[in-house]
Amino acid sequence: MKKVLLSVLGLLVLGIYNMPMPATGSDSSDEAKKLRHVVMFGFKESSTEAEVQGVVDAFAQLPGQIPEIADFEYGLNNSPEGLNDGLTHCFLVTFDSEADRAIYLPHPAHKAFVEVLKPHMEKVVVIDYWAK
């Protein structure tokens, strides 16, 4: 009986020492976090569908022009809640670092996109956050 108990205890101790440790605030898991740049637009009523689509297409071309963009997605609001406050389009631009975002913001391709957007933009909201 004593041998069995010692064997079980030995297995438990080995199991505890071989368990993965939970991530903490300063380990390499922080490096895997992504910086999200959320942009939501509401367009002027005077802008045609084709003009709005031109803005969307221009934004969607930025990942091919700015290598610091790690990921990009977008979509049209379809929430049934009616809380979008006139915002119809949402874009999610992902960066690996704040330095990459700092390159993106003044990048000539981004500035050119803003010029395409300006005549059609009624409202914009931008928020950035580190994904957890």
From TrEMBL:
Leader sequence segment: 1-25
Tagged with keyword DNA damage: no
InterPro entries: Dabb (IPR013097), Dimeric_a/b-barrel (IPR011008), HS1/DABB1-like (IPR044662)
Organism expressing this protein natively: Neorhodopirellula pilleata
Stress-response A/B barrel domain residues: 35-129
Presence of keyword Isomerase: no
Gene3D superfamilies, A to Z: 3.30.70.100
Protein name: Stress responsive A/B Barrel Domain protein
Keywords of the record: Signal
Description of how the protein assembles with itself and partners: Homodimer.
